[in-house]
Write a structure and sequence with these properties.
With 349 residues, the protein is of the alpha/beta class. The chain has helices at residues 10-15, 47-55, 71-82, 116-119, 123-141, 171-186, 218-223, 226-234, 248-251, 261-271, 286-289, 294-304, 315-328, 333-347; strands at residues 18-20, 60-63, 89-92, 145-146, 191-197, 212-213, 239-242, 245-246, 277-280, 309-310. The strands form 2 sheets. Strands 9-7-5-4-3-2-1-10 form an 8-stranded parallel β-sheet. Helix 5 runs parallel beside helix 6.
Length: 349
């Protein structure tokens, strides 16, 4: 991940913008729709995966609970994944609480936390210590990125996605906890990621199945949902994850934040001054696949300002579409270089 953008081929550049499930590199596995996503228990690198990664290199791998058996298997799997072309980064969702791929596995002797809402009772110091303890065991196993903390403000009692994954339903209370969590992870060398911009707390729909929407204006979001995001960015968060949440009062349309230049480039980069890595939420989720093909979603996310493209349903189709978009002039190669420099800056430090 340390070569300068100008020193690598176009296909290498495109690959480095994707973080995928390991299943996306296994030729024997193909998903026709998001409804078909696991159960596959892919827990080792096959010859077919090595061959595909030579043709379709990747920038990172995201491991889920079903990819992890025990400590011995995980160490071997990560070693072999990192040996793939391009030396991909390893990432995981280990928030603490119910979304914790390692802590939920009884084969691992690691700290376990009831929820981030429970951790919040101990204040910022508890949030920092929690993140540091999580980061230490993730670093031990070889992970580079933890998709945490959840910076959402859980203001909607009908929300079925966030709940106690959030620190609080009060933005003023959540903000210092999010900032402390970011600092705790940073102390271990694991990169944290604020999610889900511009806020998934005041929604009713599960974006795994369909897109969600907020009716709030930008000013209303700034006063509530975005308070913890600002605090996390000021604390040095290196990544922000965009949500499949539309904000029509901000953008004038119904495109999700993941694909919105207004939200990612004009607001997050422009108004917030965030120059770190913007990553999409998983592009395999129903909020995206019910409206866009894998290729079009990937291209639109790059046009919107995303740097990392997470888990497209059909990785090869998404990869090919980005290559074609550069070839046709729809996306400038310099746009890829811009993202690659951000990624290299983050992970060479």
């Amino acid at each position: 991940m340390t070569k300068r953008p100008e020193a690598i081929t176009l296909r290498e550049k495109v690959g480095r913008l994707f973080i995928v499930r390991p299943e996306s590199l296994e030729p024997a596995i193909r998903y026709a729709s998001d409804a078909e996503l696991p159960p596959y228990r892919l827990q080792a690198v096959s010859g077919g995966m090595r061959e595909r990664a030579r043709e379709y290199p990747v920038g990172g791998i995201l491991l889920y609970g079903h990819n992890i058996l025990d400590a011995s298997q995980l160490r071997t799997f990560i070693r072999d994944l990192r040996a793939l072309p391009g030396t991909p980064l390893l990432s995981i969702d280990e928030e603490g609480g119910r979304v914790s791929r390692l802590a939920a596995n009884p084969a691992f002797d690691v700290p376990r936390y009831e929820s981030m809402a429970a951790v919040a009772a101990g204040g910022p110091q508890a949030a920092c210590e929690t993140a540091e303890s999580i980061g230490k065991y993730l670093k031990e196993y070889g992970f580079d990125i933890d998709f945490a903390p959840v910076a959402d403000v859980n203001t909607n009692p009908d929300n079925i996605v966030i709940g106690t994954r959030a620190f609080s339903d009060d933005p003023g209370a959540a903000a210092p906890l999010v900032a402390a969590y970011v600092r705790g992870l940073a102390q271990t060398g694991v990169r944290g990621c604020l999610k889900h911009f511009p806020g998934h707390g005041d929604t009713r729909t599960d974006t795994h199945y369909d897109f969600a929407s907020t009716a709030k204006s930008w000013e209303e979001l700034l006063a509530c949902e975005l308070v913890p995001f600002r605090a996390g960015i000021e604390a040095g968060a290196p990544l922000v994850m965009a949500a499949h949440v539309a904000a029509p009062a901000v953008t004038g349309g119904d495109e999700p934040a993941t694909l919105s230049r207004t939200l990612l480039t004009d607001k997050l980069r422009g108004e917030f001054g965030f120059d770190g890595i913007i990553i999409t939420d998983a592009l395999e989720m129903g909020a995206i696949t019910r409206r866009y093909g894998s290729g079009e979603a990937a291209v639109r996310a790059l046009e919107a300002g995303a740097d990392f493209l997470l888990c497209p349903l059909d990785y090869c189709a998404a990869f090919d579409a980005v290559v074609a978009a550069v070839g046709s002039g729809r996306i400038a190669e310099a746009r890829l270089d811009e993202s690659l420099r951000r990624i290299a800056s983050c992970f060479s430090a």
